[in-house]
Amino acid sequence: MFSEEELQKVQEIRSHYPTNLGAVMGVLHMMQDKYGMISDEAISYIAKLIDVPEENVLGVVSFYEMYHQHPTGKYKLQVCTNVSCLLCGSDMVQKTIKDKIGIGIGEMTEDGLFSVHEAECLGSCGTAPMMSVNKTYHEKLNPEKINAIIDELKAKG
Ligand code: FES
User: Fold this and answer.
1) CB atoms within 10 A of CB 146
2) Distance 42 CA to ligand 1 centre (A)
3) Which ligand 1 atom is at minimum distance from the Cα of 128?
4) pLDDT digit string (tens) for 114-145?
5) pTM of the model as a whole
6) Does 129 sit behind a cis peptide bond, omega within 30 degrees of 0 on the bond before it?
7) Which of 11, 31, 58, 95 counts the most CB atoms within 10 A of its CB?
8) Which residues contact 119 (CB under 8 A, 6 or more apart)?
9) Measured between alpha carbons, how far is residue 35 from residues 8, 9, 19, 28, 92 in Å?
């Protein structure tokens, strides 16, 4: 599932930790960046690759919301619904997205371009409400900004 180059990167990640368990999250990130999700096959593969029990890898995947065990869109919209964002309008963010592309939390557009996810605090509470699109943060959102972000992503395809 990983190329030679990626396997070298795995070795480098392992070298940063005293035990192989420490490398699980970094290797999971690599897998998700490559395939957009963590499949059951990927969990077994990672467990063997870095020699940790499969249950540990599965435990990390199921504990953290940032890992997905199902296919996600090319653009993964993560809407923070924690306290600051909730008070400042995460409902508006969700409604604007739904009005614009017709999907809500846990759904993906038919063309696979967008999926919407709920996120716990992404550490940007001072600029709530916010969402991330893949690794990019979009803050102090209002309907105009959200529509513009989505239009830009649609144009990129
Ligand atoms: S509450 Fe949304 S980023 Fe912290």
Assistant:
1) 23
2) 30
3) 2
4) 999 999 899 999 999 999 999 899 999 999 99
5) 0.80
6) yes
7) 31
8) 65, 66, 78, 79, 80, 81, 82, 131, 132
9) 18, 16, 26, 10, 31
